[in-house]
Input
Amino acid sequence: MERNQIIAIVLIIVIVGGVAGYMIFLAPPPFADLIIVGTTDSVESSLDMAQSYDYFGWEMIMSLSSGLVDIEPGSEASAEDITPALATSWESTAGGTIWDFTLREGVLFPDGREFNATDVKYTFDRNCNLTGNGLWELDGPQLNMGYAGDGGIIDNVTIVSEFVVRFYLQIPFAPFLQLMACQASYMVDRAIAPLDELVTYNTDGDPLTPCALGPYLLESWTRVGGSDEEIRLVKNPNYWDAAAGYPKTNTIVIKMYASDSALAAAMTSGEIDIAYRQLTATQIAAFKENTAVKVWEGVGAQIQYLCFQQDIYPYNVTDIRRGITAALNRSHVVESVFLGTFDELYSMIPEGMAYHSPTFDVYGRANYTYTQSMLAPYGYNATHPLVLELYYESSGHYPQSLEQAQVYKADWEASGVITVNLNGLEWPTFRLARNEGSMPVFIYGWYPDFIDPDNYEFLPFASWLNLGYNDTYPAGGIAQYNLWLDGRSATTDAAREAAYLDLQQLQAEECSVVPLWQSSTVAVSKPNVGGIVLDITVSWRHWLIYMT
Output
């Protein structure tokens, strides 16, 4: 019987030899068939693993498909916390460059076909372009995460037998199991997903996702003008872990709200059973005082950081970036906007994760003397301030983006040598501007693909951020890139640590991207909701949630 589960006591009177006796049976109460989850989030592009690279899209994929391995809920996501999923066991040989996975038998796709090694090979051949199918050129997560290609992780995937598959790696990749546990490594249904074509949202009745082996199936998806209105998930009767009682709830409905205030109102009125992403710190504080709801809190690996477009002058000048960085006051934003629920961050590796070193602390907090000294040689002063165009997303994709931007503006302008203009863009437009490289300075966020420093330290030269870092500063860009490669391919902990410490130091010197804060994770629910797990993976596990 599960922890935190309410127990129903059933009394049965037994007559034995004319004597009345009492037997007490413990039985769980029935779970509700339907749970409604509210959010301000939305799928960015599609629910195809070869394209989806946003938080909410990945959470839907996690509910609709499965990977070879998983991470124990509530754990620290270390190598010891990897658990079986579609693979029941695995073995690494050849110095970490060969991985064999033994697959679970009897797992069925919706059409009755049995999952086997062919499906694993097809998934990675398709999504990682291992056969030159062309999807790689669509800038999907596997490309940006370096799954394959020159200097990538995977060389090829080979079928050993019907239920054994082998991965040949190009490098000994330390966090390979964590990579296999992330949603970009989840299986596709080859009966639906062509090798050379994405499965996207449309209104023509075609399949909307290649997902098929998860705890849920996609029953409906209502999307208007590039934003979601409602998604309905129904229990997958063929789920591989159904015998363990998953998913706990037959139907999950996700309703999308236009603002945090609308989401909070829906939670207060009882219109929804759970509110998750994005409530403000003030709203969360109010819910903590409300005995009619329950507030869930957990650790978070989400970070937010400042990006400089280094193809635009003067942000290609290192001293300018350093001066702007020094004028930041992280304690101001975490206290005034997030009421102390978030933490200041001084490294691109979150605090609490291996190899974290707060190298950006060298600039201090609101060090305006340093800011003035860095900007003065370039003609910026009190009578001729640097006019900084700051862009932020304005549609709830990140928490309280406008309020954050206003704090940064106030702190920068307090230096006396910087003037800030704020520019808010809805998430789809914001993303397009990022791709075009048209935003001189902008605020961006990161949720981990897989839990390891490797997945944070590549951001200054991530191709999809399009910052011009490698083009403008080839020496610095190449140095950072090489240190990142050293850290991810090192075979000893000491070697990984040395590479990541040097890399963090170089990132603080270059200020191509600048860490701002690290979040906690919060959800609000009705009191009779259980099974919510908020851990370092920042993954939302619909199949664990129940309501009595």
